[in-house]
Design goal:
Layout: H1 2-41, E1 49-60, E2 73-84, E3 91-105, E4 108-112, E5 118-122, E6 130-147, E7 157-176, E8 181-185, E9 193-203, E10 206-213, E11 223-224, E12 227-228, E13 232-242
Antiparallel strand pairs: 1-2, 1-13, 2-3, 3-6, 4-5, 6-7, 7-8, 7-9, 9-10, 10-13, 11-12
Length: 243
């Protein structure tokens, strides 16, 4: 009789386990069906996104003696239009429009002459409290985009890479030491058109970001010791993509 009670108890537990497993499977199947139905209803979704980024800026290919000092920053904001190119819609081409401002703290003195030309001089000592230039750009990013998203998934992995074209519509320099201040606006020796490679990788909204300009930020008129200033800019930071 005792064995019969044990067998009955085991059978009850087994039946309860089967019933619970069936319920879980039913709920899971309904969730999957709901997700699939939602995806099918929104099969033409796009990742049209606003972006906002903060970067640390550094110059490469600087002339001998030129160096950066302090923190050089960049701020970037804009919107990108998403154009999927496959059926799953997780591969796309993106094109956008944005604004960027970039500053570089350095020891290159940029002075304006009376004939509206500019001279450049390396400051060998550190007897200045401020010396930087700032550029403001309208930018057009063009990206190849891959992600693990679906129409109902808002957190996913992404890799975006491409090129970015920028037009410098305003610029200025600021120098300050104990005895004088020098300010110049709209430096004509800056290249108006700047272009470079971009790369972003991350999960959800947060992404590591790189941007490297392929052409010099100065044009051929910018000369230091009869040599062209061929400095390029590397931007390293964080880019946030927001739907």
């Amino acid at each position: 009789m005792r064995y019969i009670c044990i067998i009955v108890t085991i059978m009850k537990q087994f039946l309860f386990f089967i019933l619970a497993l069936f319920c879980v499977q039913l709920i899971f199947s309904q969730d999957v069906s709901n997700i699939q139905a939602k995806d099918s209803l929104d099969s033409k979704y796009k990742e049209d996104q606003y972006y906002f980024g903060v970067t640390y800026n550094t110059l490469t290919n600087m002339p001998n003696g030129m160096r950066q000092n302090g923190f050089s920053s960049g701020f970037h904001i804009g919107i990108i239009k998403d154009m999927p190119i496959n059926k799953r819609r997780n591969v796309a081409i993106g094109i956008g429009l944005g604004y960027s401002t970039n500053s570089i703290n350095h020891n290159l003195l940029i002075s304006k002459e009376q004939n509206d030309s500019y001279t450049y001089e390396i400051l060998e000592n550190s007897e200045f409290t401020k010396n930087k230039f700032v550029q403001h750009l309208v930018e057009v990013p063009l990206e190849f985009r891959w992600r693990t998203s679906t129409a109902s998934t808002y957190k996913f992995w992404r890799i975006y890479t491409g090129v970015k074209f920028g037009y410098v519509f305003a610029s200025n320099t600021k120098f300050k030491n104990a005895s004088e201040q020098i300010k110049n606006n709209n430096i004509k020796d800056f290249n108006k058109l700047q272009y470079g490679l971009t790369f972003a990788i991350g999960y959800d909204s947060w992404n590591a970001y790189l941007h490297y300009t392929l052409n010099s930020i100065f044009d051929s008129e910018a000369q230091l010791d009869n040599s062209n200033l061929d400095a390029k800019m590397l931007k390293i930071g964080i880019m946030l993509y927001i739907l």
